[in-house]
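Quick one, T. Sequence first:
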Amino acid sequence: MNILRPTIHITLLLALALGYASAWSRVDPAEYPQSLVPEETHADTANEVTKRLTRSHYRKVLFDDTLSSKVFDRYLAVLDPARVYFTAADIDEFERYRHQIDDLLRDGELGPAYRIYNRYQVRLAEQLAYMVNHLESGLDDMDFGILDEIEIDRREAAWPADRT
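C-alpha cells:
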C-alpha cells in the first residue's frame, strides 16, 4: 500500500505534466491564454434564451435569485469540479454575481461569466506552468518516503487558500 501512493503521485504528475511538456518548452502563464470577450451576438442570444424560458407555454422557468444561485454553483462546478484551480479569494470575488446572474442574463450582460471563465483559464495556465517547470527541475527533490494521501473526490472540499 505504501508503495502504491508514491506511484500514484508520480503517475498523476507525469500524466498531467508530460502530456503537455512536449508542446510547452517553458510555460509563461502571462502569455497564455488570451482573454475571451463577449460579442454582441452572445448578448442577444442570452437575452432571447431567457425570454423564451420565462415565457414558455410548456413550462415556465422562474428565473430568480434562487435559480441564479444554482446556475452560479453549477458554473463553478463545471469549470473546476475538483476545486483545484480557483482559490478561495477568487470565489469570494465571484460571489457578488451569485444573485445577479438572472438579471445579467435577462439584460444580455455576459461580462461576469466571461471574467470567471478567463480567470479559470489563467489558473489553468498557472498550474500547467508550475507542473512543467517543476518537472523540468527534476524529481530528485521529491520525497517518496513520506506517507501522503490524495483526496480524490473534492466536490465538497474547501477552495484552496492560495496557489501553493
